[in-house]
Amino acid sequence: KNVTTMLSIANFGIGNELAELLAASLATLPLLEGLSVADNNLTDVGLVPIVKALTKCTRLNSLDVSRNKVDVETAKALLLYISSPGCSLTHLFMANANVDDKEAAEFVRIIATRRNFKELDLSENQLGSHEYGLKYCDTAGVALGHLLSDSRCSLETLKLSWNMIRYKSAIELVRSLAVNESLTYLDLGYNRLGAEGGDALGDALHSNRTLKVLKLAHNNITSRPCCTILSGVVSCESLVEVDLSHNPIGGFGARLLLSIDLKYGDRVKVDIRNCTLRTSDYSCWFDPVKPKKEYTLNLKEPYARCVCIELLRLVTAPNDEHTIEEFQYCGPDDTAMRDINLELYSLAKIRQAELQGTDGPVSPREAENKFEEARNMYKETAGRIFRQYDLDNSGGLDRNELAVVLNQIGMEGSTAMVDQLMSIYDTDGSGLVEEEEFIAFLLDVKANNNTIEVEKPGDRFLYDKDANSNIQGRPVPYFPPNVGTVHIKLNVDKTKELVPQSVSQHSIEGMFDATQSSEDRIAIFDYALSVMKLQFIDAHSFYRVMLNEIGSSLHVLARLLPCMATPNDARMLITYATGNDFEQMHLLRGIMGAVYFVYIGLPNGFYRLNLSEPADQACLKHLRDLSITSMHHRKKLNLGDTSQDGNWMGFRNCVYDGKHIVLSEEWLEDFPTKGKLDFDFVHINTITVMDTEISHFRLFRLMHGLGMATDEKRRRIFEKLAADKEEGRAVSKGTGFRHTEIRASVMEQASNHLYKLYTTNHTNRMERVEMPISDAEKLYLRPAQQQAQQQQQPQQSTKAPVVLAKPNADTEKEMKTKHHDVLGNDTSHGGFVKEMLESGTVEPAIICERMLETLKFSLAARFITSVQLALLVHLFPDGFMPCGDFSTYRVELIVSLYTRVVDVINMDFVLKELESTEYAMLLFRLGWLNIWNPIKAEGRVCLDLSRREERQLARIMLVLNFAEPGNSWQEPTFRPTRTSPLEDKWSLPVAWYCEPTFPSQGILSLQYFSGRGCNVEDCAPNAACRHTLMALVLAKSYSADVWSGSKSNMDTIELMVQKMGCSLSFLTANHHAPAAGKPH
């Protein structure tokens, strides 16, 4: 039972004399299958007898003569043995055996005659040393290339490390991989492939389907060949391991490598340890992060073909907005370019279409009804789950209860998941998640699981539509040939639905492991982050590793926040890293500058940017992308343009180097990198509510913790919120009835102040000054934070809920008392503000500043209603104080939180809380069309027809006056200029209903009246007309108020106006932006 067929006397140093004795005994070992005499200090004297004796060992399949001196005589003996009929050798190991090019070439030619050879090891020899000393055909590289190119080749493992394979020999060798179908392991480490060899290797990998392991360490592979090789690695789906360590791959190489590693990290591991990144390779000109619009590429050149392949991959990526506008090919036999009609094949979309059935297209209304029906059914189930695990019947789940319930329903109830829930919903620091919030979380998880299907790379590709016209089923992917010329023109499609790239934890951990010993590890991480969008769980891993490298948590956050997938993810990372420490978050804001609130989801505000600063450039790019995305979203839905200048952009009141300017899409795409730029930004987008607004109870706790509300006012606040919400819902149906209207005097004063704001020289506009934390604040800040941290510790509640007097039915649910409801205690979100407010020793401006910061961060991840925002404005202490030009703290709060308001249609509740000057400031910064809506047209308006958005609003008023019965325009006045005297008994000219004679100058003032909901003075609203006109403004009607089949878009508005007999047009060319550089 101890019989072995392997004889190994390696590393014994037996010498030639004993080797001769060994040779004499080999004939007595007929069952011998493997022999190793490696590292025995042998020369021809000892090796030749051994090799000659092997002819008697007919079952021998493995021979190792490594680390011995193989000279001419041994080489001849080996050649004779291998070529003999009785030789059954399949594995030959000759590492570090003094084998040169000529000897190796002879071995390879003999091996080529055998059809069962599996493994050849020629590492640590002199292959390539005679590249120019021998004829081209005599080099080992060429001979190996011929061997691998032979269709009958059976070689599976080839080890050639630590040689000097280079130049033409290297090219010939690696090119053979394109046709080889047997090799699975290739070690070319520590050779000299260089740029040409690397390019040839990458080009060959596109056609290889068998190679599994490729080792290329220390081959002087720079950025260009690295990109070519990595492109081939993606195509070669059999590869599982690639070693590119110790190569000067540079920045471009690292960026593409990390992009591939993150996309395909579960399939192939790429080793980049000790690669040099801080080198430049000017021959590597393609940047996949910033592709050009047009390319002409010679496919015969490996790098050019690589660029073509990567461009095709780029447009098929679900998280990229580029598309192919034109793709032309000219082959070697073609006389001119011909178009190739490339179409995208997506298995996920095909499956989605199959699930929709064959009943024809579903209307948006029907789709919404089906979605709501399924959502409500799942909501009931989620509610039952919540109540089942709310063991103490408190109306909220604490951390421990959350962990249990998440595990029970099949989700990971880890600390990170619980932290994620708490970070989103626990805005008041109570340590609880309410029932409605928990249900909303589960609904979003379910929606994401239903809508996002992760496609394998092979299930999403481009194909030639004409070439696949007769093919049934799955088409054949298009792949560029290695000859001919292509011309590619790209287009950026902002309407393309992007699916965030999912990154597996395995890929991230693999990157951390691969870069562990790299001197440029942080640079590698920066390159990786440039091609990633991180969710919180992934960013959490990066944060821990980068913190060890950098040391400063705030500087790590500054690197990670630009790469977060969503503002919620950014906010969770900040909460995790700072523990809601106000001082830390304040310092982080100082490090990041203006872009901080953009990343956490509050982009609205005033910006003063120095375009020579990289941080400010990044801020402008981010705002530009938000604005362009919103523009295409509204265009896709055929909604109107609510911008200031008629260019769909969210930039208002722009001043560049002291001159008024219009920031067009073209200007923003290629903005200058110097100069000062001031502007207001408003995110012009229609909010689709996929989450519930913050509960009144949660909002009250937050306000109480800030000192904005007391427990005695709790019932009154809840009742007012409920009543205002009910009123807003009733009025938003378009009935024409309004409980209260903004006073006419306020509107007149606001109009005059708005005129002053526009005519004031705001080229030197004062911005809100960021106040550093004072010593007086720190007296209140640190004790409050220590108490908040104690409250945030996981704990089981043994405290019975406090019993209140039973409220009325409408507010009972909102006022339900939760455990931990100790309203007098500070919360983790700014309890020190309350202490400063009550002390009376801190300046009111500082208190306003800290309260504004706390509210913005606390509510950045939550939706709020207009009545809730109105309550915040009403109770904001000293909020009327100015903070810079064109703003008070209350106005700043409204502008900042405007993107979180779910019912802009009820914005009038907020406006009623403002003074006339604040109303004017809000109109100046947000714009009429983003605040006002035709559903609630009643009330006084004062419009300057020289401004585009106010002229658009006047057209809406004209259409309503025409469509609704009675005298809707009451007490109208018109002055050609603001200083012109009022005309007695002015009446609306009929000529105004024609676009050519509609005035573009003048001051129009009127009181719009629609009968107060009961046909007073024979006036009545036309609800259908009003809902149709909603497409012109930012606000959105409730879907339940719009009957089935009706549409609110620009086409229906134009058609409606034409049927009325008016020649007004909301799309006419003179509505668009003035020339750049002109004042508004």
UniProtKB/TrEMBL annotation:
Q: Where are the transmembrane segments?
A: none
Q: Which SUPFAM superfamilies match?
A: EF-hand (SSF47473), RNI-like (SSF52047)
Q: Which residues form the EF-hand domain?
A: 377-412, 413-448
Keyword Cytoplasm belongs to the record: no
What GO MF annotations does this protein's record show?
A: calcium ion binding
Tell me the superkingdom of the source. Eukaryota
Please state what the protein is called.
Answer: EF-hand domain-containing protein
Supply the source organism for this entry. Answer: Spumella elongata
